[in-house]
Design brief:
The longest helix is centred in the N-terminal third of the chain and has 41 residues. By secondary structure, the chain is α+β, with helices and mostly antiparallel strands. Helix content is 36%, strand content 21%. Strands 4-3-5-6-7-8-9-10 form an eight-stranded mixed sheet, with helices on both faces. The chain has a five-stranded mixed sheet with strand order 12-11-13-15-14, with helices on both faces. Helix 5 packs across helix 8. The chain folds into two domains: 189 residues, Fructose-1,6-Bisphosphatase, subunit A, domain 1 (Fructose-1,6-Bisphosphatase, Chain A, domain 1, 2-Layer Sandwich); 131 residues, D-Maltodextrin-Binding Protein, domain 2 (3-Layer(aba) Sandwich), CATH 3.40.190. It contains eight helices and 15 strands.
């Protein structure tokens, strides 16, 4: 009898100890999971780490493109620093000069232009730069750049009308392999179709700063963590939704739009449950910000030709081609209303083109309208 009581007691303790061990293990496991999650969040992959990792995608890469992207990111951080304190320092307002497009130049435009040029010159991987702010190309003739294989086209500060009013602005860049053989780059190096781009990207200076880029193998987005001063991978493998319900266009120019665009806008505004219409109209007036939003949520951005600007407003080399490359890589479509943007021939540095860019289904519809009312085009 006594023996059986002692056995039950042992059994009871055995169960108790095992239950205790089991609960402890579960708690430890949970804590480990939390720690790992926190650890990964704290030590998110930086742009630099990501670029080096991706270098392996290109078997003969020598790291030049990686270094070029790094140089661009350095300038972006400096520009972002100035953008965030623009209201506090004497950097807002206009310089009094006009740029090559005949538009008044803001101080921050000049600052951003100078920073990107300086970073690209110092990096030694770029042999010429084309910028919205400079009439001619800037050939780089220096000892460290004499073997450089790339040229960079850029809009250093896109959305300049928004600088003074604390609204998102951006930088757009496009990288080509030079066609000239050696020495400083030439005008010809920039006269390549968008399909020849090696890489392209944009930086958005918004509620946080983000760098989004592609090398033709998908699109990745990095958010600047100001506490460590690094762009960290926050949007891996960005995909544009196939359809959307946002259209972005400066409707103030409505009267001057081609008939196809007018009809498409009316289509967007009609009631239709099946297609989720009416769509929402969203227009920031900073192309980078409008296109970034549409890339994430789905939508269409249009800057068409008008009776006043028969070739549209935006520039093919450093605005439309890089944005088209990114949007296509994210699964979207970019055209001039009829033809693919990246297939367009280029003969001038500051050549303009109409731009239609967005989710596949919305693009399909807008192109149908453009085709249908082609004859009536302005
Ligand atoms: P910018 O490079 O001089 O800033 O011009 C380009 C900008 C785009 O970012 C934006 O979508 C468009 O021009 C706005 O133009 P508008 O004010 O005519 O609508
Ligand atoms: Mg611009």
């Amino acid at each position: 009898m006594q023996q059986s009581a002692s056995r039950s007691k042992h059994f009871f303790y055995f169960i108790l100890i095992n239950t205790f061990i089991f609960v402890r293990l579960r708690v430890q496991l949970h804590l480990n999971k939390e720690f790992n999650h926190k650890y990964q969040t704290m030590y998110a992959k930086t742009l630099g780490q990501f670029i080096i990792e991706k270098q392996n995608d290109f078997p003969f890469a020598k790291g030049e493109l990686s270094r070029l992207l790094r140089d661009i990111a350095i300038a972006a951080k400096i520009v972002n620093r100035e953008v965030t304190k623009a209201g506090l320092v004497e950097i807002l307002g206009e310089t009094g000069d006009t740029n090559v497009q005949g538009e008044r130049v803001k101080k921050l435009d000049v600052f951003a232009n100078d920073q990107f040029i300086a970073a690209l010159k110092a990096g030694g991987e770029c042999c010429a730069i084309a910028s919205e702010e400079n009439e001619d190309i800037i050939p780089i003739d220096s000892e460290i750049s004499k073997n450089a294989r790339y040229v960079v086209a850029m809009d250093p500060l896109d959305g300049s009308s928004n600088i003074d009013v604390n609204v998102s602005i951006g930088t757009i860049f496009s990288i080509y392999r030079r066609v000239s053989l050696n020495g400083p780059g030439t005008h010809e190096d920039f006269m390549q179709r968008g399909t020849e781009q090696v890489a392209a990207g944009y930086i958005i200076y918004g509620s946080s700063a983000m760098l989004v880029y592609t090398t033709g193998k998908g699109v990745n987005g990095f958010t600047l963590d100001p506490s460590i001063g690094e762009f960290c991978l926050s949007h891996p493998n960005m995909q544009m939704p196939k359809d959307g319900k946002t259209y972005s266009i400066n409707e103030g120019n409505y009267l001057h739009f081609p008939e196809g665009v007018k009809k498409y806008i009316k289509y967007c505004q009609e009631e239709d449950k099946a297609t989720n219409r009416p769509y929402s109209s969203r227009y920031i007036g900073s192309g980078v910000a409008d296109i970034h939003r549409n890339l994430i949520t789905g939508g269409i951005y249009i800057y068409p030709k008008t009776t006043k600007s028969p070739n549209g407003k935006l520039r093919l080399l450093y605005e439309c081609n890089p944005l088209a490359f990114i949007i296509e890589q994210a699964g979207g479509v970019a055209t001039n209303g009829y033809k693919r943007i990246m297939d367009l021939d280029i003969s001038e540095l500051h050549q303009r083109t109409p731009l239609f860019l967005g989710s596949t289904e919305m693009m399909k519809k807008s192109m149908e309208f453009m085709e249908k009312y082609k004859e009536a085009a302005v």
